[in-house]
Specification:
There is one protein chain. The protein has about 220 residues and is of the alpha+beta class. It has one domain: Pnp Oxidase, Chain A (Roll). It is built from 6 helices and 11 strands. The strands form 3 sheets. Strands 1, 2, 5, 8, 9, 10 and 11 form a 7-stranded antiparallel beta sheet that branches. The radius of gyration is 22 Å and the shape is globular. The relative contact order is 0.19. The model has no long low-confidence stretch (mean pLDDT about 85).
């Protein structure tokens, strides 16, 4: 506990200020098939507005995902333990760990591209018509979550979710009482484990992800 408000202010300033919840970035490139845009209405709208259709009209730009992310969470980790009896005392020893699933909330635009993307992604994971499950390497990707600083938007703490996939898409609420409420939905990611990376490494991972995104839409 601080002895005075000046001690508290001095400590915060010494460490660069307080981290802000609204300074974050989520970067990932989902499997290519989940980015396919085969909605006739959206394609027609693009034709009317631009006068032409290119290959890019059939593939959603994965760079838009970061902009549509309303909120995200950095994962926690629980150390698993078991107990043994020693000299009339109970002692704990470590047996493993459990990483928390991560939930992100996304804004929905009127073409529903972000929801369609996650629906397509889940269809690649599990074929509900034939009860077939794809190989894990075909439907996972790494998800980078960055806490950014306040002044320069540079990462100050970053984690990578290794081999992540959307294990849950929430339902979408429709209501006559929410006339001016923007539509959102949440996605829960499961993954193998998360790794904490430093700022320089985070920038490198982000740069590689941007390159992957560009390749995806060419």
């Amino acid at each position: 506990m601080a002895n005075s408000i000046d001690d508290l202010k001095s400590t915060i300033q010494k460490h660069g200020g307080l981290a802000m919840q609204n300074r974050f970035n989520v970067i990932f490139t989902p499997p290519k098939l989940s980015l396919a845009n085969l909605d006739g209405g959206t394609l027609l709208s693009g034709l009317i507005s631009t006068g032409s259709i290119s290959i890019k009209n059939f593939i959603n730009d994965p760079r838009d995902i970061s902009l549509m992310c309303k909120s995200a969470s950095l994962p926690g980790r629980q150390i698993q333990t078991a107990e043994y009896q020693a000299h009339k005392e109970q002692h704990k020893y470590v047996t493993g760990f459990i990483d928390e699933d991560v939930t992100c909330e996304f804004h929905i635009t009127q073409d529903y591209f972000i929801r369609n993307m996650f629906d397509n992604w889940q269809e690649q994971i599990f074929d509900v018509a034939n009860y077939n499950v794809s190989y894990k390497s075909e439907y996972t990707c790494d998800v980078l979550i960055q806490q950014l600083d306040k002044e320069r938007n540079l990462p100050i703490y970053s984690v990578v979710l290794k081999n992540a996939f959307p294990s849950s898409n929430t339902g979408i609420t429709l209501s006559n009482e929410s006339e001016n409420t923007p539509q959102t939905f949440s996605v829960t990611f499961s993954y193998d484990k998360f790794e904490t990376i430093n700022s320089l490494g985070s920038i490198g991972v982000a740069a590689r992800s941007v390159a992957d995104r560009i390749i995806n839409i060419l």
